[in-house]
Every structure is written in structure tokens, then in C-alpha cells.
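Residues determine shape. Take a concrete instance:
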Amino acid sequence: MLTVNNVNLHYGAAQALRGVSLTAEMGKITCVLGRNGVGKSSLLRAVTGQHAISAGTISFQNETLNGLPPYARAKHGIGYVPQGREIFPLLTVQENLQSGYAPLARKDKFIPEDIFNLFPVLKSMLGRRGGDLSGGQQQQLAIGRAMVTRPKILVLDEPTEGIQPSIIKDIGRAIRYLRDSTGMAILLVEQYLDFCRELADQVYIMDRGEIVHEGPAETLDTAEARRHLTV
């Protein structure tokens, strides 16, 4: 289980997170929703070590992560799919996937076949440069790269952003498969309400750097939840 407890995060004098607490359980999909600029990506930066927190604790499988750099968190089993994908445009698809070898022991430095079962297009494009792929293909590559690290929790920042509907369905199937087949925890930040409604076991809604709603996915249809999500 990932536990975020009373976390604050600042960018200089600006406070992005205010006393945020949540849990992401193994074998479940936890979705964080909210309007633009409410702190969702800042929460994931805190979890993955991309930005230091000002107060509170973040722990995974009963081990505190505070102060650990991103590469150390990757070794602990945190796989990250950042907003905007951030694949290496001049490296081939195969080389992008192999970049996920960094936190692995020598015996584990291979690309799991599951990645190609989930995203067959990647296998047919191993020699193509990452920058030549479509946005949807790059998103699949970014998820595949995170899967290469053998994560215990997969953290995804708006994986449907700018993606065509057919690829969104593929990504949804992949996320559901990973939850059901591996039992990993999945922490998903998203603005696409229907995507979260279909996938999530637990939802949190953020507003102005705070958690303002939590509950099972069915609660997204309540008046309280809709009030915080309406632009």
C-alpha cells in the first residue's frame, strides 16, 4: 500500500498541496480527479520524488520514502508514466524500453512479453525512433517503459491526454489487466471522468491543493463530486 499522510508541497512561496492524505492499495486502481491547476500532478511529483515535500510523510509497503531520490523510489517498485509521456525522441522504441533496465538486477534486464501482448504495435516498431510515433503510440511506449521496471505500483499522470479514443480503450484495458493479473497498485491522475468511472476502485477529488472528496467510483455521480469537477 502507498500511503500519503498530511503532505504539504511548495514551489517557492506558493503552496501546491495542503495536508493531502490518501492511500493506494495493492490490487486496486485509485483515481485522483480535479480541474486544471488543483495540485494533481504535484501530488504525483511528491510520490515519485520529482519534488521534495514540505511536510508530512509518504510511505510504500511500510517504508518511508521521504528524502529518497526518484531512482531510489524506482528501485522500491514505483513506476512512473509522466504527463506528456517524456519518451526519448531520438532513441528507438527498443532503446526506450531498455532505458527501464536502470533499477533492475542483471537477471531481470529483458523486456517482458506482456508488454507486447498489451501493445502489439510496439513490437512491430522496435526499430523506429520514439519521436516518429503518434501520440497514442508514444503513450503506450511510456507505459511499456514503466512496466519494464517491474513496478509494484504504477503511477500515471493523465494517460488519456491528447489520445485518440481507440488508444484510450487500449490503455484502459492494459490498466485493468495489470491490476487483475499482477495485483499491483495503480495510482491514476485523470480529468476524463468516464475513464475513471469505468476503471477506478477508489476515487479522490482535489481542489485548491486539498482532497475534498473520497469514496468508491460510484460516488462520482453524487452532487458533491460533480460540484468539485464542474468548470
In short: The beta strands are 2-11, 14-24, 29-33, 55-60, 63-64, 78-81, 153-157, 185-189, 202-207, 210-216. The chain has a mean pLDDT of 94. The radius of gyration is 17 Å.
